[in-house]
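Aconitate hydratase
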Amino acid sequence: MINHTVHTHRSSEEFPYEDHLAHKIARVAVDPVEVPAETREMIINRIIDNAAVSAASVVRRPVTSARAMAAARPVSEGGASVFGLPGTYSAEWAALANGTAVRELDFHDTFLAAEYSHPGDNIPPILAAAQQAGKGGRELIRGLATGYEIQVDLVRGICLHEHKIDHVAHLGPSVAAGIGTLLDLDADTTYQAIGQALHTTTATRQSRKGLISSWKAFAPAFAGKMAIEAVDRAMHGEGAPAPIWEGEDGVIAWLLSGPDHIYTVPLPGEGEEKRGILDTYTKEHSAEYQSQAPIDLARRMGDRFAEQGLDTKDIASIVLHTSHHTHYVIGTGSNDPQKFDPTASRETLDHSIMYIFAVALEDRAWHHERSYAPERANQPATIELWNKISTVEDPEWTRRYHSTDPAEKAFGARAVVTFADGTVVEDELAVADAHPLGARPFAREQYIAKFRTLAEGVVSKEEQDRFLAAAENTESLTDLSELNIELEQDVLNRAPKISGGLF
C-alpha cells in the first residue's frame, strides 16, 4: 500500500490533476491486476449476505416505497433487476430499491477505522450498473473488489463523523470507482465520475441523530444511485468540480478539518491486489455494528446471572465502559433522549446501546424483528432496566478501536453491573462472536445459514436453492439477473400499501 498525503491547495498553486486524490483512486480502479482468490470468495459471501438481509426487510415500508419507485420506471431493453420483482428497471432506481433493502435492518457488513462504513452498500449499485451494461460475473467481481477497496481505504484515512458529515460521503466515490473498473473506463473518465459522486453525496450526520427516520436506509442507496448517474454524466464527457477533496473551497477546507490539515489515505500501488474486503466483517445481529459484541456480552452475562440465581430486576446500575465512538454515537454520550424512548422508531432503537443491552440481557437472545417490536420495547421491566444503563468512554477501548493491529482492534465493552445489594459483576468482550477473531467466526457455511434463516417464509425453498447456486458461481455467470430473487405475489401482498408519489 502507498500512503498518499492529502490536503488543501490554493487555486493559485501548481497542482496537476494527476496528483488529485480522485485521480489516484481512478488509477487504482483502472489497474488490470487480477482479483485474488480470497477476495473473490469473500465477495460471494457478501452477495449472499446482502440477499439475506434484503429478504428479511422486503416487506417493510421503506423498502416497499423504494421498490415502488423503481417499479414505476420499467425498461424494455437492458435495465437492472429489483429484488423481489420480475422484469428490468432503470439501473439507478434499481440501485435505490435494492440498496434500501440491504440497509433497512442495519444487518450487513461493516468496516470501522477513522470513519464508519457498510462496504456492502457498494454491491447494489455496482451490480445494477453491471446488469444495465450486460456485463458478466468476472467483471462484476472486479468492480466490487474496487468498490470495497476504495471505501475501506477512504475510511482508514479520512474521518467524517467528527465534522458531522455522514459516512456515505465515502460511498459515492467508491461506487463510482467500482463502476469504472466494471466498465473498463479510462482513468480520466473515472476521475470525473469520482469527483461528481463525492460532490453530490455529501450530507450531514443528522440522518443518524435524534429521531432517526427511514432516511438512514435510503441515504446509502441514494449515494449509490447518484454514483451511477455521475458515471453516466462522465461517460457523456461532463466534468466534476476539481480538485474535489483538495480545492480551496473543497471538501477538506470547508467540511472536514480545514485547509491546514493533512490526511493520509492508503491506496494499493500499481499491480497490487485489492484485498480491502478481507478486513471487513459482517453482522450476526440486526443492530449497529458497535453493539454486536455488547449483544454477545449481554447474552453471556444473562446466562451467567441465570446460573447464579441473579435477577435483572435487582440491578441498580449498568455502566458500559467503551470506545469514544460507541459512547458518542449509540451511547449516553450522544445526549439523545430519544435513545430512551420506548415509542422511538426502530432506526433509533438500533442506535441505542442502552436499549439493546437491556433486551439482550433479559432475553439472552437477539432477533431482528422480535427484539424491536413495540410490545417488546414497552415492557415496564425493560424500560426500568434500560434507564439504569449508561456508557462512559474508556481511553483503552478508544485506542483499541483505532488500532491498526487486527489482533488488538476491538469494538466491544466492559460491563460493570451493580445489584441493589451491592454485588458487582463485571465482564468484557472485545469482538463479536461472528468476527474473524471471535468465538464463532463467519465462513461460507454461516453466510448460507444466515440467508436460509432470513429467507424462510419469504423466499421459496426452490428459489433459495437457485439463488445460492448462482451466487456461488458468480464468476462464471453471463446473465447477472440470476443474482436477483423473485418473490411470490402472496409475499409481496404482505407489504404495506404505499400511497402514490409523483410517478
